[in-house]
Amino acid sequence: MTTLSLNAPAKLFKTRELGIVLALALLVAYTAIDNPRFLSGQSIRDNLLNTAILAVMATGQAVVVITRNIDLSVGSVLGLSAFTVATMTSANPGLPMIVAILAGLTLGAVAGLVNGVLVRFGKVPALVVTLGTLYIFRGITYSWAGGSQVNADELPRHFLTFANDNLLGIPWLVLIALIVVGAASLMMRNYRVGRELYAMGSSPAAAELAGIKVARNLLGAFVLSGALAGLAGVLYAARFGTVDAAAGTGYELNVVAAVVVGGVAVFGGSGSVWGAALGALLLTVIGSALAVLDINQFWQQAIVGALIILAICADRLVAVRIARSLRKRDAHV
Amino acid sequence: MSDTPRKSSAIDLGSAIKSRLTSWDSIILVLTVLVLVVASFSVDNFGTSRNFTFMVLDLLPIILIALPMTMIIVTGEIDLSVASTLGLTSSLMGWLWNQGLSIETIIPLCVVIGAICGVVNGFLITGLGLPSLAVTIGTLALYRGLAFVVLGDGAVADFPWNYTGWVTGTIGGGAVPNDLILIVALALIFGIVQHATPFGRSLYAIGANAQAAHFSGIRVARTKFWLYVVSGAVAGLVGVLWTLRYSSARADNGSGLELAVVAAVLLGGVSIFGGKGSLPGVLAGVVLLTALQNALRLEDVSGQALNIVTGSLLVLSVLLPNITTAIRGHWRRRKVRQAAAAR
Predict the structure, then answer these.
(1) Residue-level pLDDT at B200
(2) Closest chain A CA to residue B310
(3) Distance of alpha carbon B296 from alpha carbon B294, whole angstroms
(4) Are the beta carbons of B78 and A131 closer than 8 angstroms?
(5) Residues of A at the B interface (Cβ-Cβ below 8 Å)?
(6) How far is CA B153 from the centre of its chain?
(7) What is the pTM of this model?
(8) Is residue B331 in some structural domain?
C-alpha cells in the first residue's frame, strides 16, 4: 500500500514534466519551421540567459509553494538586491564578482528571514505577509534610489562581461542556474529535510505531530527563496547593466506562473524543482517565440494568464484522478 | 479573533462589552479618527475642502471594490483579478468609444463586461472547484493581458466633458464631491445586505465552515459564484469611473490596485481565513489608508515610498490581533495560576 501510493504520484509527476517538455518541443519546432533563425546559437543563448534568472527564482518559490506557502515578495527582493549590488560595485570597481554574488545572496536571505519569521511566529498567512513585504521592499528601494539609476558605463567591465563569459562553452548565468536547480532538486528528493518539506505541505498538522521541526524548515524555505531572489538580482544587474528602483517589478507573477505551470500544486505537497525550472524555460521560450512569430507582444501576458489557469485545471484533474483510483483500490481491498 | 477563547463565558455581559470595545474594528475606527484629527492640525492643506474632494476621488476605487471583496474574503476566498478587470474594462471602454458607440450605451456595457470577467472567475472557482487564490492570480494576468491586446500601450482620451466633469465635480460646486453620493449609496446597500439579511449571515457561516454551511442548506457554490459576478461588475463600474476621472482609457489603469484593496479589507479587521469582519471596520480601514497616504503626500513623501506605509499597515493589521491574543492568553493563564496558588 505504501509503496503503491508513493509510486503513483511519482509517476504522475514524471508525466506532468513530460507534458511541459512536449509542449516546449512542439513550440520550438513550430517556431523554427516559421523562422529557422529561432534555432541559431545567439537565439538559444538569449533564451537560456533569460531563463536562468527566472529559473533561479522559481527554484526558491517552488520550495516555498511545496510547503503550502507562497512568496510574493521575490520581485521586490530582486529589485532591492539588483540596485544594492549595482550601486556597491559601481562605487568599488575592484570588487570581485564573488563578493557581489555573496552580497546579493545575504541581502535576499535577510529579506526571506523577515518573511519567514512573520509567517511562522506572527502566525500570519504567507500570502498577506509577502504581499506586505512586496510593498515594503519595493518602497525601501524607491525611497533610497528615487528616480536615479545605475548605468552600464558606471559598472566595472568584469561585472558586465560576467553575463556573457562562459565556462567550457556554458555561460556562467546558465551554469549558476543549473547548479541551483540541481542542488535544490537533490535536497528535495534525496535528503531528509526535503521530504519533510513535502510532508509539511501535504498536511501541516500531521507534520507537526510527527515531530518534524516545522518552524526551522519553514524559515529555511523562506530564507532560500529570498536568497535566490537576491542572487537573481545580481544576475539581473550583470545581464542588463542598467538598474533602477523599478527592476523586477511584477516578476513575482512570472515566478508563480513558472512554478504553477511546472506542475507544483498551489496547495503544497507535490511538484518538483525541476518542473518549476522547466516552467520557467517554457514561459521564456513562449515570450521569444511570440516575438519571432511576429505576434503582438501584448498577447504575452494574456497567454501567461491562460497558461496558469490551464495548469491549475490540469492539476485538479490529476488530483481528482488520484483520489478516484485510490478510492477504487481501497474498495477492492 | 479575540473572542474565540471566551466562548465558555459568552453570557458574561461585562466581558462582552469589553471585548467589543477592544475589538479590532473599534481600534481601527479610533485610529482613523486620530489620524484625521492629527493630520488636520499638523499637515498644511489637509483640512481644506479641495483636499477633501481629492481624498474622496482617491477613496472611490478602493472603497467600491472593497465592498464585494469584503464579502468574498468573509467567505474565505479572495479575488486578486479586480484591478485587471478594471484595466480590461477601461481598455474596452476606449475601444468602444473609438468604434463610435454612445457613452450611454458604453457605460452599462462596461459593467456587463466586468460581470462577465466575474462569471469566468466564479465558474473556475465554484464550477471546477479550483483554489480562488491561484485562479485569480491567473485571471489577473489574463485580463490585464487582454486589456493590452485591446488597446496596446496607447490611450483614448476624448470622452464627453459632461461625464468626465461629473466624476470630478462637486454637488452644486460646493465641497461635497458627486462621487460621495455613489459611495454612500453603494456602501449602504452592501452594508445592509451583509449585516442585516439572511444572505449576509450565510456568508459568515460559509467562511466559518463551508461544509457545515452546506449541510445546513446554504447553497455555498451558488453564493460564491454570485459574489464573484458582483465583484467583477463593481470592478467594471470602477473601470468606467477611473477612465472618466482621468479622462483616459488605458490598459494599465489601476495596476496594483488589488493589493491596496486587500490591504484595506484586512486592515479593517476581516480575517483572511474567513468568517470574521465587518463592513464599518473595512470602511474605516480604507479611510485610514487613504488619509495617511494623502497626509504623507502633502508632506512631500514620494508616492513610491508610500508603499512602505501600505505594506507595513498590511502586515501589522494581521499581526497585531495575533499578538494581542497571545498576550491576553498569557495574562489569563497567569491569573489562573495565581488563583490556583492562592487556593
Answers:
(1) 93
(2) A135
(3) 6
(4) no
(5) 70, 118, 122-125, 127-129, 131-136, 138-140, 142-143, 146, 245, 253, 256-257, 260, 266-267, 296, 298-306, 308-309, 312-313, 316
(6) 28
(7) 0.83
(8) no
| Number of domains chain B contains | 1
Taking alpha carbons only, the member of A258, A200, A303 closest to residue A75 is: A258
Q: What is the Cα–Cα distance from B122 to A71, expressed in whole angstroms? A: 25
Cβ atoms < 10 Å from Cβ of A36: 9
Whether B261 is covered by a domain: the verdict is yes
Rg (CA), chain A: 20
d(CA B314, CA A54): 27
Q: Name the grid cell of A63.
A: 520550495
Q: Do B314 and A138 touch (CB under 8 A)?
A: no
Task: Please report, for the domain that includes residue B64, its CATH number.
Answer: 1.10.3470
In the prediction, which pLDDT does A7 show? 53
Phi-psi sector, A148: left (phi>0), alpha (psi -120 to 50), beta: beta
> Parallel, antiparallel, or unpaired: how do β-strands A170-171 and A166-167 relate?
antiparallel
Residue B122: inside a domain, yes or no? yes
A299 with B310: Cβ contact below 8 A: no
Mean confidence (pLDDT) of chain B = 87
Distance from C-alpha of B10 to C-alpha of B26, rounded to nearest angstrom: 20
Cα(B111)–Cα(A150) distance, integer angstroms: 44
Q: What's the length of chain B?
A: 343
Handedness of CA B336, B340, B341, B343 (dihedral sign): positive
The phi and psi torsions of A262 (rounded to 5 degrees) equal -75, 5
Q: Are residues A127 and B144, on separate chains, in Cβ contact within 8 Å?
A: no
How many residues appear in chain A? Answer: 333
The ipTM value here is: 0.79
List the single best residue of B69, B73, B315 to mutate versus A (max A Cβ within 10 A).
B315
Residue appearing with cell numbers 507535490: A270
Q: Do B262 and A131 touch (CB under 8 A)?
A: yes
Residue owning grid cell 460559509: B206
With contact defined as beta carbons under 8 Å apart, do B193 and B199 qualify?
A: yes
| Angle at B194 (CA atoms; ends B190, B198), nearest 5 degrees | 130
Residue contact B308–A296, C-beta within 8 A: no
Q: Which residues contact B144 (CB under 8 A, 6 or more apart)?
A: A301, A302, A305, B83, B84, B87, B88, B251, B252, B255
Phi, psi of A166 (to 5 degrees): -145, 165
User: Closest to B312 (Cβ–Cβ): which among A136, A142, A298?
Assistant: A136
Q: Where are the beta strands (DSSP E) in chain A?
A: 149-150, 166-167, 170-171, 243-244
| DSSP letter string, B64-130 | HHHHHHHHHHHTT---TTHHHHHHHHHHHHHHHHHTT--HHHHHHHHHHHHHHHHHHHHIIIIIS--
Q: Considering only CB atoms, which chain A residues are within 8 Å of B308? A: 135-136, 139-140, 143
**Residue B292, domain extent:** 47-296+306-320
Cα B334 to its chain centre, rounded Å, is 39
CB contact under 8 A, B318 and A122: yes
| B302/A143 touch (CB, cutoff 8 Å), yes or no | yes
pLDDT tens digits, residue range B110-155? 999 999 999 999 999 999 988 898 899 889 989 999 999 999 888 8
Q: Is residue B204 part of a domain?
A: yes
- Write out pLDDT tens, residues B7-17: 444 456 666 66
Which of the pair, A289 or B230, is modelled with greater confidence? Answer: B230
Phi, psi of A42 (to 5 degrees): -65, -40
Q: Nearest by CB to B145, from A118, A299, A316: name it.
A: A299
